């Protein structure tokens, strides 16, 4: 699709666009109290593809130079929706090269183009960081030719590290996990049906058992092949905290500004009866068995396990979860289990 007097082309991304997409990710960071540069490595197209079964990420190309100047769109994956596997689309947001911001009016066109590429999806959704006030203000208002962003609630992301191994946690014994997928995770909305997506990273399965049955489990994945978080700077209270020996106090050690965080990501977390004490002991034990400087886990506000993480010593941040609706959308019932690994 060409627009603005044929100066720009809007199309779905290809692997040949990797270099231009990479430059856009490296050109910006989110400016909040925790200023983090979110990167997708040397091959962003592969990184997006790893997060789902279908890549619907778009690029905008300046026809005069042939350079990619914007990237954004959606990743499509099969997720449980009210207990039934359905195609769902997670919208990744739009990133524009700094020297082109406010120079092109393409947002409405991009949404129209994207809609045609994900029309087969039953549900579309996205998250926006709490500190991104500009995006929240823009997208919560209704705009002509754009979908409605309907606020569903708060999404919590927790960062923590290990301590002593408090429980006899096993590695890579997946006996009983298939039953949990059918009987437990299938009831959680927006939980991916395929736990083997490459976006979860190079992962290890951790479990704690009682009488041979899983009482607590999760995957912990190393995502650095497809995603990286680079700490840029600290602001507000975090500026002072980043200089303190937080690890001695039970909190994660703050990465040095300019460093890529050695993070692991927790997915498919299960704790029998949502037992808070068991959850804490299990996560601390599993974390102690990894070599990551911190672990990340996130979930929606109505997930009972958030209460357990709230009691742990964590550094956490929040986002707003939205359904993105061109027409009427499916109403979600029950717990929402969006995985932080795929955001």
Relevant terms:
alpha+beta; two-stranded antiparallel ribbon; 13-stranded mixed β-sheet; 8 helices; 19% helix; 343 residues; 36% strand; single chain
The span between the termini is 27 Å
- Specify the helix fraction band: 10-25%
Strand order of the largest sheet: 1-2-4-5-6-7-15-8-14-13-11-10-9
Shape: globular
Strand content: 35-45%
- Element-by-element helix/strand order: EEHEHEEEHEHEEHEEEHEHEHE
Mean pLDDT: 91
Instruction: Return the structural class.
Output: alpha+beta
What Rg do the Cα atoms give?
20 Å
Secondary structure tally, helices = 8
- What's the multimeric state? single chain
Largest sheet: 13 strands, mixed
Give unreliable regions as ranges: none
Number of strands: 15
Report what the structure shows:
- By secondary structure, the chain is of the alpha+beta class.
- It has helices at residues 18-26, 44-50, 107-117, 133-139, 177-183, 237-241, 276-288, 305-311, and strands spanning 2-3, 8-12, 34-39, 54-62, 67-81, 84-96, 123-129, 148-160, 170-171, 202-210, 213-222, 228-234, 263-271, 294-300, 315-325.
- A 13-stranded mixed sheet has the order 1-2-4-5-6-7-15-8-14-13-11-10-9, sandwiched between helices. Strands 3-12 form a two-stranded antiparallel sheet.
- The relative contact order is 0.18.
Q: How are the elements arranged and paired?
A:
Layout: E1 2-3, E2 8-12, H1 18-26, E3 34-39, H2 44-50, E4 54-62, E5 67-81, E6 84-96, H3 107-117, E7 123-129, H4 133-139, E8 148-160, E9 170-171, H5 177-183, E10 202-210, E11 213-222, E12 228-234, H6 237-241, E13 263-271, H7 276-288, E14 294-300, H8 305-311, E15 315-325
Parallel strand pairs: 6-7, 13-14
Antiparallel strand pairs: 1-2, 2-4, 3-12, 4-5, 5-6, 7-15, 8-14, 8-15, 9-10, 10-11, 11-13
Helix pairs in contact: 7-8
């Amino acid at each position: 699709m060409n627009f603005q007097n044929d100066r720009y082309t809007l199309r779905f991304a290809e692997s040949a666009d990797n270099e231009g997409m990479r430059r856009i990710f490296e050109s910006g960071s989110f400016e909040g109290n925790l200023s983090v540069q979110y990167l997708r490595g040397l091959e962003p197209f592969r990184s997006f593809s790893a997060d789902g079964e279908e890549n619907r990420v778009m690029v905008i190309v300046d026809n005069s130079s042939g350079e990619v100047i914007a990237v954004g769109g959606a990743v499509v994956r099969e997720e449980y929706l009210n207990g039934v596997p359905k195609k769902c689309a997670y919208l990744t947001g739009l990133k524009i090269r700094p020297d082109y911001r406010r120079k092109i009016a393409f947002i409405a066109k991009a949404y129209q183009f994207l809609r045609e590429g994900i029309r087969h999806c039953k549900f579309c959704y996205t998250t926006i960081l709490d500190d991104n006030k500009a995006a929240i203000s823009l997208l919560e208002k209704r705009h002509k030719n754009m979908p409605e962003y309907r606020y569903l609630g708060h999404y919590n992301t927790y960062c923590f590290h290990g301590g002593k191994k408090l429980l006899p946690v096993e590695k890579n014994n997946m006996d009983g996990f298939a039953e949990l997928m059918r009987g437990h995770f299938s009831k959680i909305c927006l939980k991916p049906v395929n736990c083997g997506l490459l976006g979860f990273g190079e992962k290890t399965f951790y479990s704690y058992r009682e009488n041979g049955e899983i009482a607590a489990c999760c995957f912990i994945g190393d995502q650095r092949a497809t995603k990286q978080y680079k700490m840029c700077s600290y602001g507000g209270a975090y500026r002072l905290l980043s200089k303190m020996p937080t690890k001695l106090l039970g909190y994660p050690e703050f990465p040095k500004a300019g460093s890529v965080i050695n993070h692991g990501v927790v997915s498919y977390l299960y704790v029998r009866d949502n037992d808070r004490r068991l959850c804490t002991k299990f996560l601390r034990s599993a974390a102690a068995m990894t070599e990551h400087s911190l672990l990340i886990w996130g979930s929606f506000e109505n997930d009972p396990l958030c209460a357990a993480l709230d009691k742990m010593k964590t550094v956490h941040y929040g986002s707003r979860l939205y359904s993105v609706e061109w027409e009427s959308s499916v109403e979600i019932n029950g717990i929402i289990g969006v995985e932080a690994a795929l955001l």
